[in-house]
Amino acid sequence: MEHRLSKRTDGKLGVLVCKRGMPVATGQVRDASNRGLFIATDYNDVQLNQILDLEFGFPDKQEKQFRRLKGLVVRKSENGIGVDFDGVENDSFTILSLIEWLKQHHRSTSHFPVRKQA
């Protein structure tokens, strides 16, 4: 049985995964909470406890500004990666904006298409 410390919000939003500021993969946020999120991706060149930068934008917003969060890799699977926001510095407003956007846009398409690694 899984025990979560915060409620997850399901949704779909394209995300760019970066290591040390360089884009390395695309994926799709599938669920998020105040404490972390799960990214569906076939990218697997990550280690547990590695910090990743996550870049995303809200497709329906007037502004075309991308937002960034940092996440600590806490889970890897063949379907994607789970990242935790604890222990890394993030803007809580950006996290809350992401969760609210996911709540309002359950059927949205990704900004970055998920691509298979070559």
What is the element layout, followed by pairings?
Elements: E1 9-19, E2 22-32, E3 36-40, E4 51-56, E5 67-77, E6 80-84, H1 92-104
Antiparallel strand pairs: 1-2, 1-4, 2-3, 3-6, 4-5, 5-6
Summarize the structure.
InterPro entries: PilZ_domain. With 118 residues, the chain is mainly β.
Q: What report would you give on this structure?
A:
Pfam families: PilZ (PF07238). This is PilZ domain-containing protein. The chain has 118 residues and is mostly beta strands. 11% of the residues lie in helices and 42% in strands. The protein has a six-stranded antiparallel barrel with strand order 1-2-3-6-5-4. The termini are far apart. 25% of the residues are buried.
CATH-assigned homologous superfamily:
predicted glycosyltransferase like domains
Low-confidence runs of at least 5 consecutive residues:
108-118
Order of helices and strands: EEEEEEH
Query: How would you classify the helix and strand content by structural class?
Result: mainly beta
Q: Residue-averaged pLDDT, rounded? A: 85
**CATH-scheme architecture:** Beta Barrel
Helical amount among residues, as a percent range? 10-25%
Q: How large is the count of helical segments?
A: 1
Number of domains: 1
Question: Mind summarizing the main beta sheet?
Answer: 6 strands, antiparallel, barrel
Provide the CATH topology.
Thrombin, subunit H
Percentage of residues in strands: 35-45%
Shape call = globular
In whole angstroms, how far apart are the ends? 36 Å
CATH class bucket: Mainly Beta
Side-by-side strand order of the widest sheet: 1-2-3-6-5-4
Strand segment count? 6
**Rg:** 13 Å
